[in-house]
Give the backbone structure.
Amino acid sequence: MSDVFGLTSQIKIMSKKDTKQNETVSWELSPAPESKGHISLKPKYDLFINGKWVKPSGGKYFDSINPATEEKLAEIAYASEADVDKAVKAAREAYTNVWSKLSGRERGKYIFRIARLIQERAREFAVIETLDGGKAIRESRDVDVPLAANHFFYYAGWADKLEYAFPNRKVESLGVAGQIIPWNFPLLMAAWKIAPALACGNTVVLKPAETTSLTALKLAEIIEESGLPAGVVNIVTGYGDTGAAIVNHPDVNKVAFTGSTNVGKIIQRAVAGTNKKLTLELGGKSANIIFEDAPIDQAVEGIVNGIFFNQGHVCCAGSRLFVQEGVADEVIQKLKDRMDHLYIGDPMDKNTDIGAINSKEQFDTIRKYIKIGKAEGNEIYESNCPVPSKGYFCRPTLILDVAQSSTLVQEEIFGPVLTVQTFRTVDEVIQKANNTPYGLAAGVWTDKGSKIFNLTTKLRAGVVWANTYNRFDPVSPFGGYKESGFGREGGKHGLEAYLKI
Amino acid sequence: MERLEVLKTYKIYIGGQFPRTESGRYYDPKNAQGQALANICLSSRKDLRNAVVAARKAFGGWAERAHFNRGQILYRIAEMLEGRKAQFVEELMKQGSTKAAAEKEVDQSTDLLVYYSGWADKYQQLFSSVNPVASSHFNFSALEPMGVVGIVAPQDTSLFGLVSSIIPVITGGNTVVVLASEKLPLCAVTFAEVLNSSDVPGGVVNILTGKESELLEQFATHMDINAVLYGGGDAKNYIRLKELGTDNVKRVFNFDGAETENPYLIADFQEVKTTWHPIENIGGSTSTY
């Protein structure tokens, strides 16, 4: 991942200093909108089942909205239980008759093809991802889409090498995988789910989130184009009940879910009485810890990247900041300055740092939490960058001097809201950081190597970033401890979720 | 004059101590001949909660032990078990085993301890990875123990089921709260005495005796138990554990005793942690000199 909060907003910091010295110099950036002329979007999308586009049995469609403009982008088919059944049957047939009979090498070649096709159409994917989800185009372009393509590349190569991954074991595919993905990284999450499932020899029924179906449907077009045998990947769109139909379908062998901890628990209960293999990638409330001996300027960039990347719609967001007392004033001041210079607005503008909140529902949730923060009497700092009047936009927000027991420290907000706590000793911060039911990620900032390893060993989280934050790579396993779920996605460890070992 | 035998009181094992159940209750399981084995503690929910507290307290220290040291301690358990072989054989025979079967069971248990002693400092190398990310970062994934693991030991053996379900889990640095076989509980208590004289820190293994029907729900719903290994053999109870365990997204595994020598049993109770750190990259110079 490149630095999302990169050059452009730093130029603006320089410009502010310069204008103080010389009022006549203006460094304001001109608008730099990405063109959406070349993308192809249909007004209406059907379900992708058994290699064909089929109408939903109930005849129902719902709208996909651009959260930055509140304009309708397309109509999306609403899959019923009968449609899900059709998709699972197609996946079963494809598994039995075609996919399980294919050699790993040939399976891999199909996946390589998909990877290449995503790269070839990268710009179209980036633009649609931004229109549909509200994330800044620079992020879709530089993070989501390349990582998605790379994920297919990585797992394509595993397809004929699986016997090397698990010593002394003969591995087998599971069968039909039912996969449900969230709205924060729509295409990337589809890649994280589909690529390892196919490499391990399974067939797929995938449901994207209802607010962000478009790139999954575009991926279905690519899958069609790749010549992948019909039924190997099926995409069904819809709401929670569509997802429930996948989870509860008796002929699904594997359920993979990324989303909220509450829904994850419901799914865990629903499959308890079955032999379905389950992996859950759930919520988080990750600690980002800044020690006095940290490189402060880099740490401030890391804090910003940790919580404001993708509007804070990141399950591993560094949403709890812990600053050692000696540097707390300095770090908080620098953080406020930095926040004031973030560009918030049109996600299609290449200068934009922070795009639109994904949906009205999520926007309301974030506002609700900020209200709770105010009611609790916390000091709240909202950045004073200008915000568009239309669309769902939320200013980067700090909740200062907040208590460990506060709702805002305990619950996942999933927005650009950062709680700030201070600490004195290493033991204290380890206790506080681990004092949460979640365990997805953590960040540590210090120049002292032995301290890093002390922290990285003791923090109970699946991903620990030391002197960096929010980095992702297909070879790097991702997933949580405790109530952040179980199983890993990415890397060699990600294969386990899709195999009988 | 004939000497009067000193009988043993069978107690439970919590935090390195041998208390009686706080409930004061007992049950008296009988062998095939209908002969009562002993008055066995009928552990309560409160005993289980106490055991979880002890296990949680012991977790950090045990998880952070050098893997080599854990291997040494596992080997020490094998030594102590070997030395007490006669006692275990006698108990197994009292519970219905033939002499040959009893001897075999003790030998198997001892050998299994030696087997896992050897894994203690090797499973990490087997299951971890260095991940070549595309950016300038060093990235590796290593295993860490899950925390406190509840174990319902297999019903049909007194010693081997107990040992084979506990040992892989503690080899990986977890601490455990174990419910012994309800029908055949004698060896569990005696094995606790073995553990207590083998340098296993108090609280790493806690052993309760009693009824699965009373404690199953507590194993599933206790919010400070991270995972459960179910060896009870009852499919309905296994499902019930899984259903009730969702409150804290508990990891629940079935133990069928099919493959007891198996490093994947260690891995089942491990979390994978991935760590990133930037690599300084100035001026693009390489090490080609």
Summary: Chain B is about 40% helix and 15% strand. The radius of gyration of chain B is 21 Å. The first helix of chain B runs from residue 45 to 64. Residues 179 and 208 of chain B are 5 Å apart (CA to CA).
